[in-house]
Amino acid sequence: MKQTIIIYSHFVEITRKSDRVCIETPKLKSELPLPNIDGILVFGKAKLTSEVISLCMKHNVPILLLTQYGTLKGLILPPPQSETISKRIKQFSLYYFKKLEIARLIVQRKCDEVEATFHLELSNLKESLKKANDLNQILGVEGSISKAMFESFERLLSGTGFKFEERTYYPPKDEVNALLSFVYTLGYNLALCLILLKGFDPYISFLHVKRGSHASFASDLVEIIRPQLTLFCAKLLQDGTVSMGDFHKEQGVYLLKKQAVRRVLERFNPLKEELLVPMKLFLSDLESFEV
Length: 291
Fold this sequence. Notes:
The protein is α/β, with parallel strands linked by helices. It contains 9 helices and 10 strands. The protein starts with a strand and ends with a helix.
């Protein structure tokens, strides 16, 4: 599997040396052969030379520019390729002819991740998932999997001073839900980037319904990494990276203070590569799925 280059240090210079990408920060310098790279994600500020951009375009390596929070600022994409067009055509075909099977696969992957991440045994829910024959039933099983995950999450918060009763959003009703919403948004942004890097359509989804500008396929992928994101939040609260004083309430909405956001981002950045792995695997399986 090719490597996705993630750059989240400021004052980075990205240049070209023959057929290699050179990345230089104030602390280190590295070179990577382009055939081993499937995309470059640049979080924050960086300088890219026209030579390295041309090299990436020649070898069909997209470059995505993002804020430090992971919000997409812009894309530098190669000219349209038949491979990318074929992926999107297949995605459309799967949506029309295999939507339930793909939705079931997403929930299956989420269930596997919940079991591995929280050390649970959910064979009864896996059996229910196999028997589900419409989207509502699949969503019902997904809800039960989430319930089991959040029950384990709640137990992990024992002794932290934080309480978690239920998952709420729009707006989050307490500090824990505010943290979950922020971290889930980071995961959504990462999923959206991967979808664009791999040439899929971010708005053709199988489990979630598109609303407004919502990239619903990114939300599909987030379900696969949601267990890891949830455990990450528990660890932040357990080790005191985020404390009760790191939140403020504004017009009835709980929000993270800026200094806490920086600490969360520092801890989240090294996790990005690990989160990409199960999402890449799913997209690879999607490509090989029979229509």
